[in-house]
């Protein structure tokens, strides 16, 4: 199949984007959501309704420069979970509790609160649960498409579809790596969904070509 000038430029751009993504991954790896990095977390039962913005201001002061996440863990918003990248030092824990006591007029004691450690989760461990379902689905789809187009060069269509989907997925993965979008199950699900949608589009295009023939 011949590639015209515009398509050549697009293809070249995609290849350059993929190469740039590979360089970023080789140097920095993918960015991952804080939950999947090595982090420490602490649960705090304040006993009073907590204002998220107030607590965020406190955490900005206490964990200056560190990445952190705040999550409400009770129905009445009186308990929180604070996750912090790498470690929560004793000084940070004491400052956090002191500022919460000052803000909400409570008498919490830092010594009674436990900091829980969580190891990082590797990208391949994050993707592994999708391996068997995706492979099984891919084999089923390939068999169906081969039988469906057995009289119309099925291998050519399968090859064309594979190359297009692979290029799209690699480009998206490169963008994710370059702009440092944190990888999470949601991102993986979106990539899988985009691959399925592109296959449906290519199949629909093939069906229209057959009808015109």
Sum up the structure in keywords:
213 residues, alpha+beta, Alpha-Beta Plaits, 6 helices, 4 strands, elongated
Rg over C-alpha atoms, rounded to the nearest angstrom: 25 Å
> How many separate structural domains?
2
Given the helix and strand composition, which structural class is it? alpha+beta
Strand content: 5-15%
Helical region count?
A: 6
List the helices and strands and how they pair.
Elements: H1 5-28, E1 39-45, H2 52-62, E2 68-72, E3 79-85, H3 90-104, E4 115-118, H4 123-148, H5 154-178, H6 185-212
Antiparallel strand pairs: 1-3, 1-4, 2-3
Helix pairs in contact: 1-5, 2-3, 5-6
Description:
There is one protein chain. The protein is α+β, with helices and mostly antiparallel strands. It has helices at 5-28, 52-62, 90-104, 123-148, 154-178, 185-212, and strands at residues 39-45, 68-72, 79-85, 115-118. It has 6 helices and 4 strands, in the order H-E-H-E-E-H-E-H-H-H. Helix 1 (5-28) packs across helix 5 (154-178) and helix 5 runs antiparallel to helix 6. A hairpin with a 6-residue loop joins strand 2 and strand 3 (79-85). The protein has a 4-stranded antiparallel sheet, with helices on one face. The longest helix is centred in the last third of the chain and has 28 residues, at 185-212. The chain folds into 2 domains: 7-20 and 123-212; 38-118, Alpha-Beta Plaits, CATH 3.30.70. It starts with a helix and ends with a helix.
Short description:
The protein is an alpha+beta fold and 213 residues long. Helices cover 61% and strands 11% of the residues. The protein folds into 2 domains: 7-20 and 123-212; 38-118, 2-Layer Sandwich (Alpha-Beta Plaits), CATH 3.30.70.
């Amino acid at each position: 199949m011949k590639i015209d000038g515009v398509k050549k430029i697009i293809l070249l751009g995609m290849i350059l984007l993929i190469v740039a993504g590979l360089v970023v991954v080789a140097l920095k790896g993918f960015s991952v959501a804080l939950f999947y990095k090595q982090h420490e977390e602490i649960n705090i039962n304040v006993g009073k309704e907590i204002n998220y913005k107030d607590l965020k201001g406190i955490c900005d002061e206490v964990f200056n420069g560190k990445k952190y996440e705040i999550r409400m863990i009770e129905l009445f918003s009186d308990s929180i979970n604070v996750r912090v990248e790498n470690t929560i030092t004793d000084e940070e824990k004491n400052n956090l509790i002191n500022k919460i006591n000052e803000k909400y007029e409570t008498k919490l004691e830092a010594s009674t609160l436990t900091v829980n450690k969580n190891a990082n989760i590797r990208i391949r461990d994050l993707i592994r649960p999708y391996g068997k379902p995706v492979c099984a689905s891919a084999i089923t789809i390939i068999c169906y498409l081969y039988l469906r187009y057995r009289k119309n060069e099925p291998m050519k269509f399968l090859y064309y579809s594979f190359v297009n989907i692979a290029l799209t997925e690699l480009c998206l993965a490169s963008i994710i790596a370059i702009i440092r979008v944190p990888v999470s199950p949601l991102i993986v699900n979106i990539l899988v969904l985009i691959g399925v949608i592109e296959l449906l589009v290519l199949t629909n295009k093939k069906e229209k070509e057959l009808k015109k023939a």
